[in-house]
Amino acid sequence: MDNESDLKPVLSAAEGNDSVHVKLKINGKDYKLDIDPRVTLLDALRERLQLTGSKKGCDHGQCGACTVHINGRRVNSCLCFAAMHEGDEITTLEGIGQPENLHPVQAAFVACDAYQCGYCTPGQIMSAVALLKEPCGPEDAEVKEFMSGNICRCGAYPNIVAAIQSVRQNAKPQKAG
Amino acid sequence: MKTFQLTRATDSAQAIAAAAKANTAQQGAEIRFIAGGTTLIDLMKLNVEQPQRLVDINRLPLDKIEALPDGGLTIGAVVRNSDLAYHPLVRKNYAVLSEAILSGASAQLRNMATTAGNLLQRTRCMYFRETNMPCNKREPGTGCAAITGANRSLAILGTSEHCIATNPSDMNVAMAALEATIHVRGTKGERSIPIADFYVLPENTPQRETVLEPGDLITHVTLPPPAPGSRSLYLKLRDRASYEFALASAAVVVTVVDGKVTRARIALGGVGTKPWKSTEAEGELTGQPATEAVFRKAAEAALRDAKPQSENGFKVELAKRCLVHALKLATQAA
Q1: Which of B18, B112, B187 minimises the CB distance to A75?
Q2: Domains in chain B and their CATH numbers?
Q3: Do residues A37 and A79 both lie within one domain?
Q4: Does residue A109 share a domain with residue A62?
Q5: Which of A125, B115, B213, B307 is the most exposed place for a label (fewest CB within 10 A)?
Q6: Looking at residues B54-77, what average pLDDT do you find?
Q7: In this model, does residue A12 exceed pLDDT 90?
Q8: CA–CA distance, B63 with B68 (Å, rounded to integer)
Q9: Which residue has the higher pLDDT, B128 or B25?
């Protein structure tokens, strides 16, 4: 048995170098790229497509700053190879709201002052938007557990929880404390 | 990161034929299956894993969770951890598994990580993850820097003079207590491996963690039907409340009839070089009254062979108390 010859490189190599052609669908728009297979989805977004909303913190899946949605589910884009995500629906921060038309979670983060330096905020927002559809219980403690994959060095956690709860409870956003 | 060729398998035979050309089984091999990538890509960035070729198995039809005619459950190799943890049959019949998975990693990682990937999750020992340090698991024969180094989080059960790395998984501890069977397809056909026989102790070959052979593809895991009248839970103790590996954990599946334990399945996490099933604790519990004194005896039996290192002596008592508390919670009146 040798089916191994059927196993072609996932995408044909671009001429003259080791890169591969890849087609990505991001925020509803199609992109074509020639990239090295080592390029993570995060690096493809930031360095090749100028979608710099997703941030690089730890680059090891520990901080959550790079959180994006793939097929509606939140993931760490630093631990995805871009070339493995052809055909997937990728949504980044740029795809969920615009300055003149904020997503309710974004509006709540503003209203609740749910950030200080703002570096982790895109990842926090992407996680929070995903959380709205996840089986998260009603209590603050449950929100904290569901948000534990997003680290905030400034410690804006109380207001992040308040912002998320205000959206879930459809309430007027209020700062914690 | 070293460069690699990325291929995509559209059927299992292709994937197996490709991986069979490697010299070793999956972990550390030059040809690696990739699904969620949460362990592998992390370790490739550190140059701890340096595969020349990746075989993407995400498109294989191994993504189902289904009830079995005997009342058990079959779980596909690439089922995501979050889908497994939230599956209604898992929550209803195998609470310990759902709780264990949800106690591990983060929501993002659980959306990516898969059943088979979690089974093969690699240790978090910092010396394994740092290529400038000696590590017999990463580079056989170079020595173990952990034994004389920072070993607070490392194992106290199943260690050898060559390796004290902890198996970091929560899911695997629950799988051990549930007596899961791991189904593998390889170059010689299919075989079923009870989880008790799946992991090997480090001894003098810590680079080898399982009985898998080159080319072996985990296709699915099966769970036996839930024991009638049993209750199960997972208790995890760690340095912070969430998103942290266990210092000690306990997976318990117990049946109590008229105040007596009629059946017990016990596994410990955070303390062993593999998910640590304790038949010793099970023996102390079975047929005995469900009392704290009996639970304590079981805990003493589970940790009897513990061999603490310079910084992790606290784990011996912590693991005992973890097991006692888990048994109390699992046996108290509903």
Answers
A1: B112
A2: 5-56 (3.30.43), 230-331 (3.30.390.50)
A3: yes
A4: no
A5: B307
A6: 97
A7: no
A8: 15
A9: B128
* Per-residue pLDDT tens digits for A127-175: 999 999 999 999 999 999 999 999 999 999 999 999 999 999 987 677 7
ipTM greater than 0.90: yes
pLDDT of residue A13 exceeding 90, the answer is no
Confirm whether A175 is domain-assigned.
Answer: no
pLDDT at A6 over 60: no
Q: What is the DSSP string of B124-150?
A: --TTTS-TTS--TTTSTTS--TTTTS-
CB–CB of B209/B27 below 8 Å? yes
Residues in chain A within 8 Å Cβ distance of B56: 10, 84
Minimal CA separation from A127 to chain B, in Å: 8
Cβ of A84 and B111 within 8 Å? no
Give the pair of three-digit tokens for residue A62. 């520990």
**Residue among B37, B54, B106 minimizing CB distance to A80:** B37
**Angular region, B217: left φ>0, alpha ψ -120 to 50, beta rest:** beta
Which residue range is the domain that position A151 belongs to? 104-168
Residue of B nearest to A127 (CA): B108
Q: Which helix (H) or strand (E) covers residue A140, if one does?
A: helix A140-146
Predicted pLDDT at B26: 81
Q: What is the tally of structural domains in chain A?
A: 2
